[in-house]
Amino acid sequence: MILLNSYVKALQACVASWSLLKSEARAKGVNVYELVKNNLWCPRKDVLRREAERIVPYEFQRKVYGALKKISVDGGIVVVEAPTAAGKTEAVVSGFLSQGLEDDWWLAPRLIYMLPTKALTLTLYARLHAYSKGLSELYDIPYLPVAFEYGSSIGYRRYLYGGVLVATTLDAAMYGYVALRVPGGYRNPRLSMPTSLLSTSLVVLDEVQLYQDTHYYSPRVIGLIVKTLGRIGVPVIYMTATLPSMLLELLADTDYISVIAPPQRGRRVNVDLEYLKAKKKLPDVLAENRLREVIKEILAQGKHVLVVANTVKRAVECYNILKRLFGDNLVLLIHGRMSNYTRENREGVLFSKSGCIIVATQIVEAGFDLEAGVLVTELAPLDSLIQRAGRVARGGGEGYAFIVDIEDHVPYVKEIVESTRELLLKDSALLERALMDVKEAKEALDYLYTESLIEKLMKEAEALAVRAVSYLRQLRLFSLPPEEHFTLREGFYFTLVVPEILLNLSKNKLLAKMQKLVRILTDLGKKKGVSEKLREIVVSEEEWVKFIEIFEKASFTVGYYWRRSILPNIAAGLSVSISRENNKKVYLLKLSPVSEMWHIRPLGIYLLKPGAYNAEIGLTLDSR
Fold first, then answer.
1. What whole-number distance in Å separates Cα of residue 577 and Cα of residue 581?
2. pLDDT digit string (tens) for 410-421?
3. What 3-state DSSP class applies to 260?
4. In 3D, which of 492, 503, 206, 558 has the Cα closest to residue 341?
5. Cis peptide before 263 (omega within 30 of 0)
6. Angle 99-103-106 (CA atoms, 0-180°, nearest 5)?
7. Cβ–Cβ contacts within 10 Å for residue 582, how many?
8. Which phi and psi angles does 315 have, rounded to 5°?
9. How far apart are CA 450 and CA 613, in angstroms?
10. Cα(184)–Cα(191) distance, rounded to whole angstroms?
């Protein structure tokens, strides 16, 4: 009973702290990460206590705690399934933090919490900081340090050692496990350090539905690694709101503890299929009087309107139409081909303003802390629709979701999209029920994601999967990695950097170096010959920390399959090496011309031509 009381106290502190941090971020007009990073948040103990006392844990959260106790000795896998905004994150992290209140680390001495993308990881970092800070303030116990790790292409790498609570991308953690991302470099590689950390931590993989790719390659690889961790005694948690049985089988087989939340109450999302039935599409429906009046009414109530398109191209079209209808100040565009700086600024605006129209792509499907009154979305696979509709009425009450038709199935599998259409038209209340009840959702998803369809899709990546299995079987502790090629994802990515943002964020000596960099890019873009020596920029060790921060803000990643379309927009590739100058350590930046598609390498860093990136709409391409 004492242990359960500690869990309840930790959960109350977590929920209250996160709520107060979000409220302060809204009041100051910044996103939560900026508030935490700049040490601008410190909750008052009396306010925190009042907020915490109002929190009553859900029954399923108590069951999560019970599942953690069961796997605390011998390890194993727990699968937590609950609707969006149901409190999954607090349920698991509170179990870990309750150890501090008990002064008994019965579960694990460290938490490693994985998410699929960097954007989600930074928000989680702020969230974990709020949890740890709130618990420390409320109960006068030591603050547990929080760190993040997102596999930066340039800059510092902590290799999961940065804190007791670590927010990390899946890639950063898993490439450490397979000895391809380890401290020490080539000269003195500590090959098994990331693996040893994972093996002694509580490991959480959240939003696991986002690991699903077209050919189910990543779930197969993740499942092999996680099942090994579970067998050797590591406590592992999967968390999701939408998980087909076939995907769960790849990730965990049948050897796991299941915790399923009951249907949500006090919240309703009314789903409208009239535009889908009439085969009306984005962006045309946005100008129709019926929908326009609904949007006006929701904005008048101070609530957000969310419009989700399946491609960046269509999102931009919707954005332009909505600006003409409702004015520039009310409409925001957010998608995956925007710099981190642009996206963070716009998310900050959402925190500070009420009654905005947000036009977005799939990036809002998970971890995007937005509450909307209305959703207008293109038809997509049912699990995507559940995630999108999960942004509506998150705090309770009533909201609306309008599903509209599509021109084509891109970027999804056609059979799944068409089966979703069939399901929705046959049962108009299906999406409403699936949104509130994970059992309803799973039943519908299992109808879509059949064994025969998944096996057919998996065959397309069979050769790659065989190589991954071979690599993992040869992997040994304290040894160099196998010679075979290994990749966690079916597709690679590369990083793009926006030169205008580099200039805008730089000051003093660093500004002069960024100006030189842009001059080189301009000359390379004009096909002017620039000698190799003149394409080098030296950055001192003192300037390097700020340099990394600016580069991270000015960058974003894109899939490797986009290289042909993006090639005309790239000015140069960037490589970084360490050197010595006047007996001091310096960083040498070298710019290389990019004129052919083969110049673009997986995981490489490339600077866009000045003018290629539009500050308002990001990087746009002719297709998708």
1. 13
2. 999 999 999 999
3. strand
4. 503
5. no
6. 50
7. 5
8. -60, -40
9. 42
10. 8
